[in-house]
From TrEMBL:
Protein name, UniProt field: tRNA pseudouridine synthase B
GO molecular function terms listed in the Swiss-Prot or TrEMBL record: RNA binding; tRNA pseudouridine(55) synthase activity
Biased composition (Basic and acidic residues): 42-53
InterPro entries tied to this protein: PsdUridine_synth_cat_dom_sf, PsdUridine_synth_N, tRNA_psdUridine_synth_TruB, TruB_C
Keywords: Isomerase, tRNA processing
Entry annotation: catalytic residues: D100 (nucleophile)
Length: 362
């Protein structure tokens, strides 16, 4: 028998079946009709007529892959997912990390089988560029809210630079009152909109990088941050202002990177719509990326078709051979050039956690 080999990011191994195990990783689907970027109108764009009749004429399809959307300002993440789902006529969709309506930039949208990889994208690092307006704090910590405090103080560059080290690394952060976090089963933003005082506990977040990029005038400063899961940029603006003896809120925000998804890969919603119309209102498949890019951060284990079939039945496999790699943690499993399973490696044994049913590429 040929011994297993490591070739770049790929690990080749022969395997032997053992036990069955359960399927545990899931991603929340979204099923929302599209909306214009400047409106909260959730009606699909298209020919006039009854909405249910249009839906009946557009049967949903099994569409699997990622759309790296450049979300426009003025659209919620839920509306963006609904718009993309409608364009692709997809049965299932979800996104990997909410962006506020005020924000633009990288909103990875998973369709079909790609929703199984959403947790790995959501846990990855993200890069934001944001502009803080000094002298005013709002109830939402951004320009969409109402002012709650004001100050005539404007911080100097040296004071800002001296402040930043205290916000790098592992810090405690209180999320904004207007956030999607739940309090006794209710969304914090729903309580805040109803005039109920919202007090959220501080949470530990990680800021890997934080830089002052520009100070175009005394009222504004531009920053760039690379941070981990759960970080609220709006909270950074609020806390910057308070610690600098003034106040602050976000007036511009753009997410340029999510994990391995970079800004130059993003596709604007208008481009997707134009592709859809140019192709006779067929889905813009040219913008669809493979399911496996959601697992780019994981080691990839290549197995034989027989072993892939065992994994598909829920059976674990054992890596064999004198040079079989010993790995730990999540692993992406491929066979015949396509993703077949997401598993957990425990030494020489691989346990399937999610099975992928995408059809092989044509």
């Amino acid at each position: 028998m040929t011994a297993p080999m490591i070739t770049g990011p790929m690990i080749e191994a022969a395997a032997l079946a053992v036990d069955t195990i359960d399927d545990t990783i899931a991603a929340p689907p979204a099923d929302t009709p599209p909306a214009d970027a400047t409106s909260t109108d959730a009606r699909p764009r298209g020919p006039k007529g009854d909405r249910r009749e249009r839906s009946a004429r557009r049967p949903k399809k099994d569409v699997d892959g990622w759309v790296l959307l450049d979300k426009p300002i003025g659209m919620t993440s839920t509306q963006a997912v609904g718009a993309v789902k409608w364009l692709f006529q997809a049965k299932k969709a979800g996104h990997a990390g909410t962006l506020d309506p005020l924000a633009s930039g990288c909103l990875p949208i998973a369709l079909g089988e790609a929703t199984k990889t959403v947790p790995f994208v959501m846990d990855s690092r993200k890069v934001y560029r944001f502009t803080v307006r000094w002298g005013i704090e709002t109830d939402t910590d951004d320009s969409e809210g109402q002012p709650v405090a004001q100050s005539e103080v404007r911080p100097a560059r040296d004071a800002i630079l001296a402040l930043l080290p205290g916000f790098r690394g592992e810090i405690e952060q209180v999320p904004p009152a207007f956030s999607a976090l739940k309090i006794n089963g209710e969304r914090a933003y729903d309580l805040a909109r109803d005039g109920i005082a919202v007090e959220l506990a501080a949470r530990t977040v990680i800021i890997h990088r934080l830089d002052l990029v520009d100070m175009p005038d005394a009222d504004h400063a531009v920053f760039e941050a690379e941070c981990g899961k759960g970080t609220y940029v709006r909270s950074l603006a609020r806390d910057f202002g308070r610690q600098l003896g003034t106040h602050g809120h976000i007036v511009a925000l753009r997410r340029s990177v999510v994990g391995t998804f970079a800004e130059e890969e993003l596709v604007p919603l208008d481009t997707l719509r134009a592709m859809h119309e140019a192709n006779g209102e067929t889905p813009p498949f040219a913008a669809l990326r493979p399911v496996e890019i959601g697992l780019d951060s994981l080691p990839s284990l290549r197995v034989s078709p027989a072993d892939a079939a065992r994994l598909a039945r829920g059976q674990s496999i054992i890596l064999r051979g004198r040079d079989a790699p010993i790995i730990e943690g999540p692993v992406a499993i491929t066979a015949g050039g396509r993703l077949v399973a997401l598993g957990d490696a425990e030494g020489a044994e691989i346990f399937p956690r999610r099975i992928f049913h995408s059809a092989p590429a044509a």
